[in-house]
Amino acid sequence: MSCVLGVLIVLPSAAFAAGGPAAPEPSCALVPGWAQSGPTRAYQAGNLFEYMDGNAEGYLIYGFRSMRGVTCRQGETSFVVDLSDMGDADSAYGIFSANRDPDVPVTPIGMSAQLTPRRAMFAKGNWYLEIAANPEGDYTGPLREFASALDRTVAGSTSLPPALAWFPSEKQQSLRLVPSSVLGLRLLKHNYVNIFDYKKAFVVTEETPAAATEVMKKLQARFGETAPVQIEEEAFTATDRYLGRLCVSRKGRYVLGFTNVAEGQDPVALAKTLAAKVQ
C-alpha cells in the first residue's frame, strides 16, 4: 500500500513496547554491501500522513501504532525498509493480506511473506514489514535476503491467526481481515472474509455474546424477510439484492455465515459447518 521505496527497521520506543517486543534499531549492515542513506525515520499514528500522504489511512484502519524505517543503498539501488507496530497479530496479518497480490504465492518468512521484483513484505507477531526497491528492475534475490535477515531480528510469533483455520480451503480465492464494513455493512465492523468462486464466508467478532445478539437483530431488520434455522444459538436465512442467498448464525460473541451462495449450494449447511469450527 505504501508507495515509498526502501527498507524499514524499528527503533525501540515506548509505543513499540506497548504493542509487543521491541524491534532492533535500523541497520543496513544486516546484509553486507549496503549502507544507510539519510537518517532513520520515526512516525506515529498522528503524523503518518506526513510520510505516506494518501496511503496513511490504509494503515490506520488496521490499528497502526508506530513505524520506524531506514533507506539502504547499494550503488544506484535503494531499499526503503519500514517496520510497523500494528498492535496485534490479527491486525499485522490483516494489513499484509490487504496489500499482498492474491495471484503471487506466499513465502515462509515470519507468519507469511510475499516477494515481487520490487517489493517484499511480511507479517510476524504484531509487526508488519515492507521493503520497496528503486529503480526499475528485478530485486527478488536481494529482497529475500533482506527480509530473511530482518525476520531473524524481529521478535514475534510466526503462527498464523487461528481464525484462518476456521474457513474451508477448497476453491478459495481471497482470505483477508476486513477492518470495517464487512460485506459492505457498517454494523459488521471487523473480521475475516473468505471469498470462493461460488460463495463468500465471514466471521465477525463482537466484544460479548450480548453485543453479537444485537448485531443479529440489526441484520434481520436490515434484510427484512428472514427465516429462522437451527444453528448454534440462533440463525436465519434470507435473500438480499446485493448479497444474494445467505445464512447468518451466532455462536457466542461470533456472528458468522455465508453470502452470495450459488444455486445448488446449501447456505444453511455451509454456515453450520463453519460454525462448528469457530472456537
Structure overview:
The protein folds into two domains: 6-153, Protein Transport Mog1p, Chain A; 162-277, TM1622-like (Protein Transport Mog1p, Chain A), CATH 3.40.1000. The protein is 24% helix and 32% strand. The chain has seven helices and 15 strands. The protein has helices at residues 14-19, 49-52, 56-60, 89-99, 140-153, 209-223, 267-277, and strands spanning 6-8, 35-36, 41-44, 66-74, 77-85, 112-116, 119-124, 127-134, 172-178, 191-196, 200-205, 227-228, 234-240, 244-251, 254-259. The strands form two sheets. Strands 1, 2, 3, 4, 5, 6, 7 and 8 form an eight-stranded mixed beta sheet that branches. Strands 9-10-11-15-14-13-12 form a seven-stranded antiparallel beta sheet, with helices on both faces. β6 (112-116) and β7 (119-124) form a beta hairpin. The longest helix is centred in the last third of the chain and has 15 residues, at 209-223. Residues 1-20 have low confidence and may be disordered.
Which short descriptors sum up this protein?
279 residues, alpha+beta, Protein Transport Mog1p, Chain A, 2 domains, seven-stranded antiparallel beta sheet, 15 strands, disordered N terminus
